[in-house]
Structures are given as C-alpha cells and as structure tokens.
Amino acid sequence: MTNGDIYSTGAPEQRVVFMECENLDPLIRNMEEIMGISIEHIIVPAYRQVARAYVEGMLPDNIGELARTGQVDIRALDDMFTEVGRLLGFGN
Predict the structure, then answer these.
(1) CA proximity to 80, closest of 53, 50, 58, 60
(2) Which residue of 1, 55, 63, 89 has the smallest Cβ count within 10 Å?
(3) What is the residue extent of each domain of the chain?
C-alpha cells in the first residue's frame, strides 16, 4: 500500500486506527450534560463491537474447533485476548 494506511499483513483488508480516548471522554461527558442523559449504553456496545471485529479478524474461522479439540492452547488464547483488550483500553 502506498496511501499511508496501516494494516496487518495477515489481514490486509483491516485497517488500523489510533484513537486517543482521553480526548473523547470529555466530549462524551459534555454531550451527556447537554442532553441530560447518559449515552454510555450506546458508547460501550459500539466500542465492544469494534473490538470484537478486530479480534475476530485476527483469528482463523475454525478457532472454536481448534480450541475444543486441544489443537490450540486455551491459556495462550486467553493471554492474547487479555493483552489485546488491555491495548484497546479495556480494564484500564
């Protein structure tokens, strides 16, 4: 790619986007203050869907079968999910 997109060589159809959440948090709080209601019930599921799509794109389609048959180490998968979640800002 020569257009500056950042992507994974394993999944070139997926693009990487860096978002600084610390800048979005005050914006979301201000929106909530203006509207007088919480929009967390919209923000959290949307963020979760993006994170899930990102993780699913890294895994083979048959990962469930591989895990059930013991061909993939469940603890290694868990460690990977935990680290990706941490990098995406979950649990911080």
Answers:
(1) 58
(2) 1
(3) 20-87
Q: Identify residue 83 by its one-letter amino acid code.
A: E
Closest Cα partner for 19 from 92, 89, 74, 91? 89
pLDDT tens profile 53-72: 878 877 888 988 998 999 99
Supply φ then ψ for residue 7, to 5 degrees.
-150, 165
Task: Find all residues with CB under 8 Å of 21, minimum gap 6, and list them.
Answer: 89
What is the pLDDT, as a whole number, of residue 71?
A: 93
pTM of the model: 0.56
What does DSSP assign to residue 89?
T
